[in-house]
């Protein structure tokens, strides 16, 4: 079990790497690169942090960590909108681990970061789909590994996360799905919270520095109230996500997904408005957060479907 101190050290290490290697200019360069992410930074994250090895047991070449450890890394990457193969790779590892006979060789390569993984929840929108070496799909409660497949890039609004449409050509049954959609929801929620916190910080900094009518706009009472409300929204969502990381039940996963999506959407919408016209210029990063928020909201099951499922579960619970 990872201690709180160890997890905080992990967070600080990732944050330092991101600060050094993933400033806004570097993120934009990664977006334009051939593979859609900074391969040098990915190598650093795998070698210095063991980012891709966190959920893999030590006996299979991993770090023997927990879901919350991977969530911490994704939260820090999300904070700077770092394009990364980590989400898809982590989910692919968890899928292989759920197999009746885990593929040790494939898991070791994924843990090293030399292979990239993808989990197919919706074949039309697969994270890492265009660069994946190991693809596992879940359908009707069963897992299958796609040994051969075709991949077609999908045009997305969120430039920081590439998606692809995959079709299987040859597949092998692996076993029962342990609930990977819920795990994906928790990890994505952690990433959303990191981005929401950073987006709020950018908005607060802008309000402190933008002068209107001879005063920083952040000094106006109406804006103070709006930013205080945003802070409460993000803090509450983060607490819900943290609970889901520690106790990854289906109910907690759905609650975390809804809370993080709502917080990120609200913060980016307010951030766009409070920044004024500069927020929608290509040079400013605020529009990238706005696009990530809306892209993430639709990446897995849309919030309306998650809410419907959660309501059903609550109503049937004795």
UniProtKB/TrEMBL annotation:
Reported cofactor(s): FAD
Domain of life per record: Bacteria
SUPFAM superfamilies: Acyl-CoA dehydrogenase C-terminal domain-like, Acyl-CoA dehydrogenase NM domain-like
Residues annotated as domain Acyl-CoA dehydrogenase/oxidase N-terminal: 4-113
Keywords annotated in UniProt: FAD, Flavoprotein, Oxidoreductase
Entry's Gene Ontology molecular function annotations: acyl-CoA dehydrogenase activity; flavin adenine dinucleotide binding
A Pfam family annotated for this UniProt entry: Acyl-CoA_dh_N
Gene3D superfamilies noted in UniProt: Acyl-CoA dehydrogenase/oxidase, N-terminal domain, Butyryl-CoA Dehydrogenase, subunit A, domain 3
Domain called Acyl-CoA dehydrogenase/oxidase C-terminal: residue spans: 185-294
InterPro entries: AcylCo_DH-like_C, AcylCo_DH/oxidase_C, AcylCoA_DH/ox_N, AcylCoA_DH/ox_N_sf, AcylCoA_DH/oxidase_NM_dom_sf
Family assignment from sequence similarity: Belongs to the acyl-CoA dehydrogenase family.
Name of this chain's protein: Acyl-CoA dehydrogenase
